[in-house]
Amino acid sequence: MLPLDFSPKTRRETLAQLLPQLEHFYRETDQHPVSQKWDMSRVQAHAQALSLETGNDVNSVLQQVVDGLTHEAVHSPHPGYLGLFNPRSNFASTLAELMMGIFNPQLAAWSNAPFACEIERYLIRAFGEKFGYASEEIDGTFGSGGAESNLTAVFAALNHAFPNFHKTGLSGVSQPLSIYVSAESHHSIAKAAKITGMGSQAIREVPVTATLQMDLVELERMLLADIDSGFQPLMLVGTAGTTGAGAIDPLAEMAAVARRFGMWFHVDAAYGGASIISPLTQRAFRGIEQSDSITLDAHKWFSTGMGASLFLTSKAHILHQSFGIQTAYMPPRDNEQAPVDPYVHSAQWSRRFIGLKLYLPLAIHGWEGYREVIEKQMALGNFLKQKVLNAGLKVLNFTKLPVVCFTGADMPSEEVVRDWVERINHNGKFWVSAYPVRGQWCIRACITNYNTDEAQIEAFVRLLMEVMEMDKVSC
Ligand SMILES: *Cc1c(COP(=O)(O)O)cnc(C)c1O
Where are the alpha helices (DSSP H) in 131-200? Predict the structure, then answer.
């Protein structure tokens, strides 16, 4: 037997030992501190403890990794993790990871993994339809995350505006370009502007209104000023569920502006997009069906394991136009009806079956299952908001999504808020972040975990009262 193989017996024994440990962590995640203070040199020593020269005993290697992942990580699967859209990955998506590890399908070319490619296309169509795209116009691709999907959107916008962009690159562009995002948007768009060669100078951060949505009056003013000074507006980005405060931009109005100025209209719904499946929030997405493209992360509110995002577009030709390439060593595509090869539809080449992480939970629990979970989380967000208000605190954001940004009634300084956040996070039971809403620092708490319940929120508010030294206030 070659060194890279396990004997069938070792394989069975290893699985028999490892799987119960994983299941135990999954079941009792809440028994571990959500986060702790790390000692970097200790973590480094732990990570480098095993020699890579001659190899080590299987069990000691696995034990080292299980220990490190258990004790030296923030646990986003913990129900007290009220953080940054990082979910508890649902068990079905975990099974997908396991299956992908064993089958290891290669999704570069359709002919190599036809079933997997067709599952992904089935999902792309289903999601496109959920967002109101016409079936025959839908295309899309799976990628690593929202940052990649947003990069795909910026690249698609360039290729749409300049049909020869794939040949000429920026040398075929005579005017400087501009991209409009709200001041609350995610900075992966700015990164995409850098990667695509436009530079961050292309980014225009449009101020937001009192509800933290893009200010359309300002947008129009900036557009006209930019055109006056020789810029060509390339793209307008609406955010549906901002990272900081869960705001959803006025998408329908923005779609009209984009059309009027000939811009690609992209909606970054990395987090919030999941709530399109609930009638409670559907209306806020009005206009998204008019978009040219959408980013939706599965590894956020769809609670799949990390590394799963959807890029959807209603311009069915654009991915091929942008990423198309021909090589002698890949299978040829002999006619228009031939299936699409994923490698000519995204920046990736060899790639894993990302869509399986979303397919398994959807096929097992259905849209209905997801709707129930998402609505429960929204109700819990309202519960938290009410508790915080009852305690005499101030909530500074307005959103139906379960993101609550709150602070003391006396509008404390950044230093005070950061100190609260640090004390909460070092308590080990909860994890929150600090975020400035229109300049006022807040504690930001988001229901990201489908296992979080009312009892945990009540315990969180009790901890808040301690940390804020408001024990006297009843809530
Ligand atoms: C998280 C997020 C992103 C980035 O997505 P990743 O999956 O972290 O790459 C982009 N936009 C918004 C609105 C987000 O919330």
Answer: 146-161, 165-168, 188-195
